[in-house]
Amino acid sequence: MARIGQDIMQAKRVLEAGHLVAIPTETVYGLAGNALDPVAVASIFETKNRPSFDPLIIHVSSLLEAENYVNDIPAPLRKLADQFWPGPLTLLLPRKNVIPDIVTSGLDRVAVRVPDHPLTLELLAQVDFPLAAPSANPFGYISPTSPQHVDAQLGKKISYILDGGACKVGLESTIVGMEADEIIVYRLGGLDIADIERIVGKVSVKSHSSSNPQAPGLMESHYAPVKPFIIGDLDELISVYQSNGIDFAVLSLERLFQSVPSENQITLSTGGDLKEAATRLFAAMRTLDESSATVILAELMPETGLGRAINDRLKRAATKG
Length: 321
Ligand code: TXA
Ligand code: MG
Prior knowledge:
- With 321 residues, this protein is α/β, with parallel strands linked by helices.
- The protein has two domains: 203 residues, Alpha-Beta Complex (DHBP synthase), CATH 3.90.870; 89 residues, Rossmann fold.
- The strands form two sheets. It has an eleven-stranded mixed β-sheet, sandwiched between helices. Strands 12-15-13-14 form a four-stranded parallel β-sheet, sandwiched between helices.
- Helix 8 links the parallel strand 10 and strand 11.
- The longest helix is centred in the last third of the chain and has 16 residues.
- The radius of gyration is 19 Å and the shape is globular.
- About 2% of the residues have low confidence.
- The site of threonylcarbamoyladenylate has 28 residues, from strand 5 and strand 6.
């Protein structure tokens, strides 16, 4: 069973022995191993049941440290790093050969970020290698935003979970890179596109295709609860499921439904605040997945600010197969 604690030296020892530690970040918890050790990286894939063609993000303590692992940082991406690191931004940059093939699935670029969490920044300062870390969930399931989420699913497979409390952003990082002179967002995430565009101007979003060779991991079905997850107009869905006598749970942005028992519904933000909704999204999906209901009914958020990234996760959660 995993120990859950705040002992950075313990985490360091486990990592230096080539084993894995779950680490807190501002976005979601990561399943971390020494990114320079192909055997440790292989055990990340195995522990998560993750297909090996889905590359990993490396976590470093600073932009300066990132320079050890990449050949070049194009000026616009450097501006973004200056502005938003530590924070929920991942950059795709040309990798140096010290980064093993297994980290990038053989791609020329490596995904790099500086996470914004004091415990993990301290851990990164204490070890002399970057940490490869995907989200600490079995492949395809909802990402963990608390140490308890990690423990529930991976606790038997890892020895230590560094306890940094609940994640304050709650959505994975926004992934950004360049193709020729164009700035591309490959995954919508915890850093709002409007904030990125304020620094570097217009960007293109390429996050939806499941066959995009630049981001093989952006599968259409992902972040998914075990139960059927249905998105639509909640008033309509509720009346259909009620008339069919099916036991359902409801996930809404800010509305409560009189006709639904309160224990079967979660409101993400009573004030309709999309930041708060993002923070609570994955925990809410887990709670409803563990409830007695057989189906989860959900609605899309307004397509503004973090609403776009939340909708991306909701749609992937709803796709089966
Ligand atoms: O917020 C986050 O990014 C969290 C925390 C733990 O840092 N990590 C995370 O990792 O979400 P993961 O592995 O669940 O998602 C990383 C995504 C994958 O979908 C993968 O396809 C993409 O990043 N990716 C990683 N390296 C890439 C590369 N070299 N080229 C294109 N896409 C890459
Ligand atoms: Mg993930």
